[in-house]
Specification:
CATH architecture of the largest domain in chain B: 3-Layer(aba) Sandwich
Number of domains of chain A: 2
Structural class of chain B: alpha/beta
CATH superfamily of the largest domain in chain A: P-loop containing nucleotide triphosphate hydrolases
CATH topology of the largest domain in chain B: Rossmann fold
Order of helices and strands of chain A: HHEHEHEEHEHHEEEHEHHHHH
Oligomer: heterodimer
Strand order of the largest sheet of chain A: 2-5-8-1-9
Strand content of chain A: 15-25%
Number of domains of chain B: 5
Radius of gyration of chain B: 34 Å
Number of strands of chain A: 9
């Protein structure tokens, strides 16, 4: 158990992460936490969902256990399994069980990527029972009041295969995230990318332009995260246009014509 | 080489054609003196041109000699490639113009010099402007730059500067400027403007207050140009920085004028910073002051409107502003079109509202529909109404939509069902508006379900595909028009008979297919897994006890093999499939459908036929998301021999449909009875190479093609088209139904 305790401590967030609130998301999330209601964050990639969770965990002073979901994620990956150690079968908690025991926040990132049968395991945890059955050990864990479950997904995939079951999603309080308004995004890029406001403003303009290319074949426009990365590259002495090419254009598409158009936007702005 | 030998060589190349001897002599005469290396290269192009057009080939032979004065020998094939493209877009006349000026039309652009065409830059600038605007603003070729708020018009060619790169920058400025005009609110009418005529743009109403409205318009536009340039400097500083050395080099009409007018002065000041000294004339002084310190820096156009009022008072009556051409990027105003578009959008919105509220009303009987235009019989009246409707719809199309429709040769298509391309959203709305505004509001609603119901009716907008021409190693652009047509369901005993005939076989097939179903299964002896594999653990304990190295594969893992497969059966419905062949194909389809029902694989069935490139037809029998219903069965019954086998457009269409389907494995199974062939000269190597290319395109997009054929000569060309292992030949057509399911099972397991 001491080992377990040490491990959960690794998930504590000691320093205040930078987060600029966009609306009332913090108030809603904190209220949900007090009520023991799980949280569903939706929004495009790189708009600040994960950062929000880090900030929330820091404010609530709870460890944050993040699981990036994928299509091979099984229930045992979440709950735990027996391992053979020195010819002995030893039970090892999965991240979800660990978070429940320690009263941490368990954040399942991109939950739609996980198989639907895997996500069912969170059902009893996500309603008023707040219980996690560990079938292999015959154990029924009841979550302490400090425990919180949060999941996220990107509704922009527009795929029937990547959608949440109604029975899953109706257990959550949902917060919708989008790219921040231009002024706020400039502030974020300035601060996180360590850039001059003028340059940050132009980068945000570029991002807005790329987000307008949805109908021209670009699945998603440049995210705030991409802008911050670009800012950091520029800070390291990479020329602006080269940084935009490497960090934005090339990251967004492989299509030659779209790349050329993105280059034109960059050369118009800088 | 003497003429006789040239002629002999020529006839050999164009065999089996036998063109007139005098035509050949005329064309080859000038070439008799050429060097043999040149002649070889010139003659090497003939097989690519002759099948496209004989007249073009003769014109080419006359022009090829002089063309080589400007071109290196190895550039000739590229020149011919471009020539063929030009012929297909602009006809023989266009091709002749292209050949007449080799230097300007080809050699200079090839070396990165000379003029640039909109077609060359559109692929780059279209997404650029969409990004700027955050919405689609189509770029359309026109005489002068302009915008009507829904599209941007640009000159078809720009050759102001010697270098292409500079001309490209100018194109980019034009696009950015027209967007900026919209973004900076040049066309927004301030509230204080009086609206004299409801149908006119408020700015036009404002200009008409003056005795010379055109002068007022020109002054306003130039003042606003100053403001828009300033706006661009703020919004797109990079663009304006790279344009800075080019702007002073733009030619101005004022350069040749003996007495420059106020617009000439302002243009010079704006582009070259050559502002006239104060005291030039009261008008110029004032205009200059307004532009430099007032209107040019304002946030909206109100200041420019005020400035126009002020300047028009100072404008001497004899001063003619019409001699000054607008700046090339500034272009012209299309205020009336803008107003019309605005009105139409409002009307559409109201109409939609009306439709939404009246949807529960009973449809007006068809009698009322035809009476309006009845000239003769009922049918005639209906046709006349349809034609009138089409014509009106055409008039209402924006120039962009018209140009798109013309580009794909839509007027060559069968007239009543041909709808212009879908690239511009409102087309449908326009047609609905038109039918509804003809006093037949009820029928506008009734028509929608009716439209798809008529026999052989088109179900969606036609799609245009390129066609591969192996002789020139390039695509014929926008060559084939593919339309999806409804196959009217047929009720007969065919399905029942088939089910009865193959009863035992179907049961066996279903069983076999059930075995294909995979779901969850445990895999033992894994290094990682969900649970401990007790057997492996016991063994490892024994190994340890026996002093052997134990295995570390002690876990059991649950794996899920999800069959994520989507398949499309593409059925040849050409004339040659009549009789036994067609019957067996249909039976095969029934069998495979019955078997597929036990699998989770998604599948679609399409038929294809058609005649000539403008009428390639696709008949959906079962779409991928459709259930295997009674209607689908009846459509299978309706499959019958039709016309020709232009296979490649059908394959391209299937590939584009597949692009919307998410599946790990995407399979395209083609059922055919012979070579690809069409009524025109689409046959032989040309057809095979085009089909092969379409299949390669499909593979590149992650679609696995496979062909089941019954053609006895299949071995000669099938391997070339599909690849050695991607086709199967069935010698006894009666065995097709049973074999097809077997083949599917083998392919997907």
């Amino acid at each position: 158990m001491a080992g377990q305790q040490m491990r959960i401590d690794e998930f504590r967030i000691e320093q205040e992460p930078y987060y600029l609130p966009i609306g009332n998301e913090l108030a809603i999330a904190e209220a949900a936490y007090r009520d023991g209601t799980p949280l569903l964050l939706k929004g495009p990639t790189g708009c600040g969902k994960t950062r929000f969770m880090q900030y929330l965990a820091w404010r609530l002073q709870r460890p944050l256990v993040t699981v990036s979901c994928h299509d091979d994620l099984s229930t045992s990956d979440l709950v735990g399994r027996y391992l053979i150690r020195a010819s002995e079968a030893v039970w090892t908690d999965g991240p979800l069980t660990m978070a429940v025991r320690a009263g941490a926040i368990c954040y399942l990132d991109e939950i739609v990527e996980a198989r639907k049968d895997t996500t069912v395991v969170i059902h009893p945890l996500a309603d008023d029972r707040r219980q996690l059955p560990i079938e292999k050990r015959g154990e029924l864990l009841t979550a302490p009041p400090e425990f919180m479950l949060a999941v996220s997904y990107n509704p922009g995939y527009q795929s029937v295969l990547k959608d949440l079951k109604a029975s899953t999603r109706q257990r959550f309080v949902a917060l919708s995230f989008d790219y921040p308004a231009a002024e706020k995004e400039v502030e974020i890029v300035c601060r996180e990318g360590r850039l001059a406001p003028e340059l940050a403003k132009s980068l945000v303009k570029l991002a807005v332009m790329t987000r307008g290319l949805k109908d021209s074949g670009l699945a998603e426009g440049a995210s705030t995260r991409l802008l911050i990365q670009t800012g950091k590259l520029i800070g390291r002495g990479i020329p602006v246009k080269a940084a935009c090419r490497a960090s934005i254009s090339e990251a967004l598409t492989d299509d030659r014509e779209l790349l050329a158009a993105l280059d034109e936007m960059v050369s118009s702005l800088f | 080489m003497d003429l006789e030998r040239l002629k002999e060589k020529f006839y050999l190349l164009v065999a089996p054609s036998l063109p007139n001897e005098w035509d050949v002599e005329d064309a080859l005469g000038p070439l008799a003196e050429s060097e043999s290396a040149c002649l070889d290269e010139i003659f090497a192009q003939i097989p690519a041109i002759w099948p496209v057009s004989h007249a073009l080939c003769f014109a080419y032979l006359s022009a090829a000699g002089p063309a080589l004065c400007y071109l290196a020998l190895d550039e000739l094939s590229l020149w011919v490639h471009t020539l063929l493209d030009r012929y297909e877009t602009a006809g023989l006349h266009g091709a002749q113009l292209f050949m007449a000026d080799v230097d300007q039309q080809f050699a200079r652009p090839l070396r990165g010099q000379g003029c640039l065409r909109l077609a060359d830059v559109r692929s780059r600038l279209q997404p650029y402007v969409n990004g700027l605007a955050g919405r689609e603003l189509p770029l359309i070729a026109a005489v002068e730059a302009a915008t009507d708020s829904e599209a941007i018009f640009l000159p078809g060619e720009v050759g102001v500067f010697a270098e292409q790169e500079e001309n490209f920058l100018l194109y980019k400025l034009m696009v950015s400027f027209q967007w900026a005009s919209l973004a900076a609110g040049v066309f927004i009418a301030p509230r204080f403007l009086a609206l004299h005529r409801k149908s006119a743009h408020p700015l036009d109403c404002f200009f008409s207050e003056f005795p010379q409205p055109d002068h007022a318009r020109r002054l306003f536009h130039l003042l606003e140009t100053g403001r828009v340039l300033e706006f661009l400097r703020q919004e797109l500083p990079g663009l304006m920085r790279s344009m800075a050395p080019l702007l002073p080099r733009l030619p101005l009409t004022g350069d040749e004028a003996t007495e420059p007018n106020v617009l000439d002065w302002l243009q010079r000041g704006l582009l070259r910073g050559q502002w006239p000294a104060d005291g030039h004339s009261p008008l110029t002084d004032r205009a200059m002051a307004l532009m430099r310190h007032g209107a040019g820096l304002a946030a909206d156009n109100a200041a420019s409107l005020e400035a126009v009022r002020e300047l028009m008072v100072l404008l001497p009556p004899e001063e003619d502003l019409a001699t000054t051409r607008p700046l090339i990027f500034q272009g012209i105003f299309r205020l009336q079109e803008m107003r019309n578009l605005g009105m139409k959008q409002r009307m559409d919105k109201e109409l939609r509202l009306m439709q939404a509220t009246s949807i529960s009303l009973p449809a007006v009987p068809k009698q009322a529909d035809t009476d309006v235009h009845s000239g003769g019989g009922e049918g005639q009246g209906y046709d006349a109404a349809l034609i009138m409707e089409m014509e009106r719809a055409w008039d209402q199309l924006t120039p962009f939509m018209q140009s798109q429709a013309q580009q794909i040769g839509i007027n060559e298509m069968p007239p009543p069902t041909g709808k212009p391309s879908q690239e511009h959203g409102p087309t449908q709305a326009v047609q609905e508006t038109v039918s509804a505004t003809e006093g037949r509001a009820g029928s506008a609603i009734a028509r929608s379900p009716h439209a798809g119901g008529r026999k052989g009716e088109e179900m969606a907008e036609p799609v245009v595909y390129d066609e591969w021409d192996y002789r020139r190693k390039g695509f014929r652009k926008k060559w084939c028009v593919v339309s999806e047509k409804e196959l009217p369901p047929v009720q007969n005993a065919f399905i029942e008979q088939t089910l009865k005939k193959y009863r035992g076989q179907i049961r066996r097939l279903r069983h076999q297919f059930e075995l294909l179903q995979t779901g969850e299964r445990f895999v033992r002896r894994q290094r990682e897994g969900n649970d401990i594999d007790i057997d492996a653990l016991v063994e490892s304990r024994i190994d340890i006890a026996a002093g052997l190295p134990p295995s570390d594969r002690l876990f059991i893992r649950l794996t899920r093999d999800h069959r994520d497969i989507a398949v499309t059966f593409l059925v040849d419905m050409s004339n040659s499939t009549s009789g036994w062949v067609g019957q067996s194909i249909k039976e095969a389809l029934v069998l495979i459908c019955e078997a597929m029902e036990v699998l989770d694989d998604r599948y679609a069935i399409y038929g294809f036929s058609g005649m000539r490139r403008l009428r390639c037809e696709i008949f959906p029998v079962k779409r991928i998301d459709e259930r295997y219903s009674k209607t689908v069965r009846q459509r299978i019954s309706a499959i019958g021999p039709r016309e020709y086998t232009r296979m490649a457009p059908a394959i391209r269409h299937m590939t584009s449909l597949f692009a919307r389907v998410e599946a790990k494995i995407r399979l395209l199974i083609v059922l055919s009875d012979g070579k690809p062939e069409d009524y025109d000269d689409y046959k032989g190597d040309y057809a095979i190479e085009d089909t092969r290319h379409a299949l390669l395109e499909a593979k590149a997009k992650g679609v696995h093609p496979f062909c089941i054929t019954i053609d006895r000569q299949a071995h000669e060309y099938m391997a070339h088209m599909y690849g050695e292992v991607n086709y199967i030949f069935i010698d006894k057509i009666q065995r097709l139904p049973a074999r097809m399911s077997e083949i599917y099972r083998t392919l997907t397991s």
